[in-house]
Amino acid sequence: MTHFALQFYDFNEWANKQIFSRLNELPEDIYHQEVQSVFSSISKVLAHVYLSDLGWLGVFSGRSMNYALRIAEQLKEETEETGLADMEKLFLDLSDRYKTFLSQKENIDKQLVIEHPSGELMNTSVSELVPHVVNHGTYHRGNITAMLRQMGYASVPTDYGVYLYIQNSNQTK
């Protein structure tokens, strides 16, 4: 049986692919189009999610939270300016790194002590934090859906229930 954290991460990858597929169908300029929202453009939402996911993989691999935050700040502007095709590639490459990491039992069960920038310590595990990574992505895919609607375009379903239905349908064929 597949570990829940790995299955849940597979859902995250599927949902991201759904969003990229939809964005690739739309006029190219909407990716960087300025809107009045939580983020000022879809490119900035995706840069934020990518840098957060990158940071968490670093933390899972033994880097400090402060290190992850510094890297995100250093790469922020460059990542926000990345074009859609290159951003999609960054997401796919990072997903491959996550799946390789999570497929190793010693990694998925790894215990972590994370120091919050405030100095407080949190005892947790990789498997406990994967749902955080996925939920963070889900939240921001919702931002993208709202931004697309604001620009006059429909989004695509990216719910976990839809993913499970599709997975179940594929298994029964």
Automatic annotation (TrEMBL):
InterPro entries registered for this protein in UniProt: DinB, DinB/YfiT-like
One Gene Ontology MF term: metal ion binding
Pfam family for this entry, one: DinB
This protein's record includes keyword Metal-binding: yes
The keyword Metal-binding appears for this protein: yes
Signal sequence, renumbered to the chain: none
Sites where the protein binds a divalent metal cation: H48, H136, H140
Domain of life the protein comes from: Bacteria
Keywords: Metal-binding
Family to which this protein belongs: Belongs to the DinB family.
Protein name as annotated: DinB family protein
Organism: Virgibacillus massiliensis
